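Its record is retained below.
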Amino acid sequence: MLNTKRTEQVHSIIAGAEFIMLRYETEFTPCTGITAVSRQERRHFHHGITIAPWCPNLKRNNDKEDPLINGKVRYTDWIFKAHDRECRVLISTDEFTPVFFLKVEGCFQGRENPYDVELSELKKDSLYFGAAVDKVLKRIEPHNQFIWGADWESVPALSLAHDRYHIALTLHNTFDQCLDDEISPFGDIFKVFGEKRAYSTQTRTALEVGMSIADVVTTVNRGFADGMRNDPLQQNVMAGHLKPYLDKVVGIDNAAFDPVSLDMLKLKSQLHYNFTAGKEQLFNIKASALAALPDDIREKAKDKVLIVSMGRRTAQKQHDLLAESVRQILKEEPAFPILVVFTTVEGDGGSGARWEVMKNLQDDFQDNVICSDGRLPYFLELMNAADYNCMPSLYEPHGGAYTGIVIPIARAVDGLAEQICALNPTGEAARINAKWHSKYEAPTGFLFREEPNKNMNQLTSELKELLEVSPSPRNALFMEMQKTLTNALQEAVKLRLKLPEKYANLVLAVLKKQESSNWYTNLGGMLALIEEARTRRKLR
C-alpha cells in the first residue's frame, strides 16, 4: 500500500518545519554536485524540510535503485491542482529530514537527470513547480518560516512566496534563464518575469528577479562569491547581467560532500602522532584499494602515479584540457610514469566531442590512459587508490576538492582556490593562493593558473569560445592553461615518486581540512543572515 502518509500528517510535518528548502536535485533525483549538497543538508538541517520536483521517468540502473520500488520514496494521499494540472505529493521514508516531492502532470520528464528536457520545457517545469509550491504553502500557511530556494529554477516559487515569507536564495552556479516566453499560460501570477530591466528594454532574467526580491542571497563558498565579482568569465561572459545585485551575495562555505570515515580519522591520528607508522599505513591502504580494482587498471598502474579526473563532460570541467596536457607529456617522454583514469558521465551537448578527445588519447597511449563512461561501482576503491584528483575547471563554484586520501590538482579558480592551499605555487597561481591562504597554512594540493591576458576583449572572446565550443578550441588561452597544467602534473608525479614523506604530509593536511569543515556552521551562517533580514523587512 503506497499511500502511507495521510494528507493531515503531511500538513503537520510541513507546518512544523522552521524552514522550507526548495531544491531541484536530491539523492533520489540526482545530477550534479548539488545532489551531494542536498544529501548533506537533509542529514544535518534537522529543523527544515525539502520540497523538490518528482521526475517519474528518470533512468535507473536497476529496480533496486528505484526509490519507489525499494520503498525509500512513497506516495501520500495528497492530490491537488497546480494551476491547471494535477499534482501528487510523495515523501521520503528514511530517518533523515523528509523530502516532499511534487509530481505535476506532464512535468519533470527528464530521463538522464532533472534537466534532461528541452529548455522551453525546463522553464515551464520551473513555473509549474512554483505554482505547486505556492499551493502547498497556501494550504498549510506555516508561520515564522523562511523559504530557501536554490538557483534559477526555484525563483518562480520564491516570487509567489515573497509577500508572505522571508526569502533566501543560494546560488550553486550562475546559470540563468528568461521566462517571459513561458509565462503566458499562467495569466498574471508570474507577471514579474515579463518586467523590463530599469536600464534597458530587455526582460529581467529569473536570477535578476530572484536576487532583487530575496532577503538573503548566498553562494556555496567565499571563493565563488569573489569569482562572481572579479573573475573575467563571470563578469564578462556568464553573469555580467547580475552585477547590480552582487553586493547582496554572501559566501557561506559548504562542508565536505561526505563525512570523513572512521578509518580515515584513525589514519589522520596516526600520521599526526606517529608519522612513520602513519605513512606506512597510508600506502598500505592505497595498495589494498588498488588490488581491489579491475585488472586493466591494476596492471597499468604498476610503478605509475594514478590520477583520476571525474564528473560530467561539460565545458566547465575541461576534461579535454587534461587530455591535451597528458598528450603533451607523453609525446615528449613516452615512459613518463603516469596513469590517468577519466571516469566521466554525459554532460552538455558537446559531451560526445569531449568523449572523443579522451578516447583518442586512450587509443594513442593505451598503457597510460583509461576512459570510463558512466558511474563506477568501484568508485570508492578508485579514489582511495588514486594519488591525485585533477580538476582543470574553467569555473567551479565549489567542487569536490577533497575525497578521502586523494590529493587535488586544480585550476586556481573560484571555490577551488579558496579550498586548496597550494604547494609551491608559481605565477598567477601564487598570487591567487596568497589571497586565500597564509604562509603558515599546511599545503593540501597543487594549484595552477595561466597568466592573465591584459587584453580584456581578447580574453573575453577566448573564454566565450571555451565555454561554448566543444571540444575546447586550441586558442591562446587554452594553450596557456595547458602549459601550466602540464607543469603541475609533472611536479605532482615527481613528488609522489621521489618524496613520499612530503606526499604523506599532504594527505595529513587534506584529512585535517575535511575534518574541520562542518555543515552546522554552514546552516548557522544562513540562520544568522535570516535573523538580520527579519529586522529589515516586516511581513504583511
Observations:
- Residues 124 and 182 are 6 Å apart (CA to CA).
